[in-house]
């Protein structure tokens, strides 16, 4: 009888073979032999090392964390039922109902992958970045270099850790105060809808303790408009300022926000996006505490 760990590896391998590369945003070439994703492609999508994915598939890596299993489930574009099966095969309880979900439906991932010319990031209800495409990395840097718990926009705006250090300078046309207030308003709304989510509660309590600005926005009785659209100026260290239209699209039924950045056809900013697309230029950022990595991660602005 197969052990749960071997079941886990077999599931990952089977679902990797099932996923069409084009649906995950990868070009299909004539010399490609694998029917589905290559191991290195899955590792890239999940933000893991190729060696770790290999050891997971072979059953040599034991006790993957919930974050790792969740990242693999998103990368493999699993349904909720399949995601829960993967969690159980890893000896973990699946995410409970009534908690903020980081699950990105396969259809949303396929849609985003087909819009490869547009920088796209998908955020959960607490503004944690859970999925991004290649152009997002080209504009903001690879979010995989930042620990998963730090890929949170509120932490980037108001915290004092790696998330804050990794953010590029971005200016909002509406001004920093209006933008910050809108993000806090989104978190207030999330707290009202997910009162039992301990991770969300910890995030709010943490930011109230380290940021006077967050505490003031949280305490205000004025209801701020939720963040939906804006015009941003991104200061890219390689190609200079890029002015882009930022739109936040709500995914019905999934409580996700798909953030897109676009420029008018023929504009100089569109030309800069084309340059990033062709050259694959990434930002370079120095993280504190001797953690240095090539790449940053993007956010809807500040």
TrEMBL record:
Transmembrane segments: none annotated. One of its GO terms (molecular function) is DNA binding. It comes from the Bacteria. Residues 32-83 form the HTH cro/C1-type domain. It holds the Pfam family MLTR_LBD. This is Transcriptional regulator with XRE-family HTH domain. It comes from Streptomyces violarus. The lineage of its organism: Bacteria, Bacillati, Actinomycetota, Actinomycetes, Kitasatosporales.
């Amino acid at each position: 009888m197969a052990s749960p760990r071997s079941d886990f590896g077999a599931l990952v391998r089977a679902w990797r073979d099932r996923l069409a590369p084009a649906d995950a945003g990868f070009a299909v070439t004539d010399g490609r032999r694998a029917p589905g994703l290559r191991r290195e492609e899955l590792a890239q999508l999940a933000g893991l090392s190729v060696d770790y994915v290999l050891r997971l598939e072979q059953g040599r890596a034991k006790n993957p964390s919930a974050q790792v299993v969740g990242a693999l489930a998103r990368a493999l574009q699993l349904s909720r039922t399949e995601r829960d099966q993967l969690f159980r095969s890893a000896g973990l309880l699946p995410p409970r109902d009534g908690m903020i979900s980081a699950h990105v439906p396969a259809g949303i991932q396929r849609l985003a992958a087909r819009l490869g010319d547009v920088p796209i990031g998908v955020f959960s209800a607490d503004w944690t970045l859970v999925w991004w495409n290649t152009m997002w990395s080209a504009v903001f840097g690879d979010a995989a270099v930042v620990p998963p718990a730090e890929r949170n926009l509120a932490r980037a705006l108001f915290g004092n850790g790696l998330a804050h250090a990794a953010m590029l300078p971005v200016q909002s046309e509406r001004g920093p105060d209006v933008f910050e207030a809108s993000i806090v308003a989104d978190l207030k709304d999330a707290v009202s809808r997910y009162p039992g989510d301990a991770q969300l509660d910890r995030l709010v309590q943490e930011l109230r303790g380290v940021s006077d600005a967050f505490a003031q926005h949280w305490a205000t009785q004025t209801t701020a408009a939720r963040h939906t659209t804006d015009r941003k100026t991104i200061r890219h260290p390689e190609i200079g300022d890029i002015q882009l239209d930022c739109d936040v699209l709500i995914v019905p039924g999934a409580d996700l926000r798909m953030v897109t950045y676009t420029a008018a056809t023929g504009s100089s900013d569109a030309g800069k996006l084309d340059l990033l697309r062709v050259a694959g230029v990434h930002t370079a950022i120095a993280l504190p505490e001797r953690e240095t990595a090539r790449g940053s991660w993007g956010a809807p602005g500040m």
